[in-house]
Specification:
Elements: H1 2-15, H2 17-31, H3 40-68, H4 72-87, E1 97-103, H5 108-127, E2 131-139, E3 145-153, H6 157-161, E4 166-173, E5 182-193, E6 208-213, E7 229-234, E8 239-243, H7 249-280, E9 291-296, E10 302-305, E11 311-312, H8 315-319, H9 324-335
Parallel strand pairs: 4-9
Antiparallel strand pairs: 1-3, 1-5, 2-3, 4-5, 6-7, 7-8, 9-10, 10-11
Amino acid sequence: MSDLSTRFTDLKQKINLPQKESRIKELENLSGDPSFWQDYQKAGKLMKELSDLQEEVGDIKNLEDLINQNQEEEAEKLFEKMKFSLFLSGTYDNGDCLLTLHSGQGGVEAMDWAEMLWRMYTRFIEKKGWHWEEIDRTAGDEAGIKTATLVVTGKYAYGLLKGEAGTHRLVRQSPFNADNLRQTSFAMVEVLPVIEDAGDIEIKDEDLEFDAFRSGGHGGQNVNKVSTAVRIKHLPTGIVVTCQTERYQNQNRENAIKLLKAKLWEIREQEKREQEANLKGVHKIAGWGNQIRSYVLHPYHLVKDVRTGYETSNTDAVLDGGLDEFIEAEMKIEAK
C-alpha cells in the first residue's frame, strides 16, 4: 500500500486537482446564468465537460479513501482506470479527429498499402461504434490511394487514435509483379484534432488563396460537371489543403478550413515540443523516419510496435481493425 500511496501522490500532481476543481466551479457558475442555455450546442458540450470533470475528481477522492482504508485490490483497479484517464486528459482528447493517410516509398505497392491501412482504420472505427466520413481522396496511379483524409466522429476518437500517427512499414510478397518478390512499402498516418473553436488560432481571409476545381470523388456524374472541389493555400505557412468528396463547394470549403485549423494547431504544438526538447537537450525529428510499427506478411506473420514492443502474429485480425491491444500498450507506456 505504501508503493500505491506514493504512485497516487505522483498521479494526483500530474492530474492537477486544484485546476480541475477550479474549472468545475467556473462551469457551475456559468450554467446558473440563464443566457448560458441560449446556445444549446455549446451548453451541451460544457455540461459534458462538467460531468467528466466531476467524475474524475470523484475518482480521485474515492481512490484516496480506498488507500486510507487499506483496500488495496479495489484501489489498484481504480488507479489503473485513472492512469488511462490521465492519458486521455488532453484538451482535444475526448473529441473527434482528422485522420490522413499518405503513401510513401514503394510506388504502387505503397499506394496499395495506404489503402490497406484505410480499410484497417475504417474497420476499427466501425467496431468502436464511431462514424467516419471521407473528405478528401487522391487515387493511386494503378491501385490504392496516394492520400485520403477521414473525419472520425466519436468519444475519445482523437485521444485513442493520436498514437497511430507516424510511419507504418509493410513487408510482403508483391502482388504487382509476376515474380512475387519480397517488397517493403511505407505509408504515413497523420492524426489531428477537430478544432471547432479556433481560439487563438487566427485565420485571416487575406491570408488564404482559394481555388475551386472539378472533383474526381464520389457523387455520380454531376460531381464532375461543376467545380465543387476546393483547394486552399495558407500564404503565411505555405500549407495547402484540399477537400473534394462533398457534392457542394461550400461543404468542401468548410471541411478544408477545418483541416487547415488542425494543421495550424499542429505546427504550434510541434514548436512547443521542439522548444521543450531543446531545453531538455534532446530532439526527435518528426516525419518519415518516425517509424512506429512494422507489419510483416512474408516470410512470417508479425505486427510489432516499435515504441511499446507489443507484437502479435495474428496479422489478419490487426488488418481487420484489431488495434485495441496496440493502443492500450501505448497508453500504458504514456501513463507511467
